[in-house]
Design a protein that fits this description.
Length: about 100
């Protein structure tokens, strides 16, 4: 399974765009975009709507991709066991059940 940065690189290359061109479209520095593509930096969620518009991607699906990657990276970095997934699922169910909106 590829990471978010790999997806960014693949989409950019399919368009035959340089890092500089895509970075300008996203209003970001090309060095930062390079770090995103190599997995050394996280993609800024605030840039996601324009990214999805540029590549005609489903925003909700890409939010899910980005969030799942951030969660996986955190679990990996903290060396937490698989129980965290079960607990997170329970907490989400609790939040949905008690949503006051």
């Amino acid at each position: 399974m590829e990471n978010f940065g790999d997806q960014v690189r693949q989409l950019r290359k399919e368009k035959d765009w340089t890092l500089t061109k895509l970075a300008a479209m996203l209003d970001m520095d090309s060095a930062n975009l390079s770090k995103i593509e190599t997995g050394k930096r996280s993609f800024d969620e605030k840039k996601l709507p324009i990214f999805c518009k540029i590549f005609s991607l489903d925003l909700e699906k890409m939010k899910t991709e980005l969030l799942s990657e951030k969660f996986a990276n955190k679990v990996y970095a903290e060396n937490v066991d698989g129980e965290v997934f079960h607990l997170a699922e329970q907490k989400v169910k609790y939040l949905i059940k008690n949503d006051k909106h």
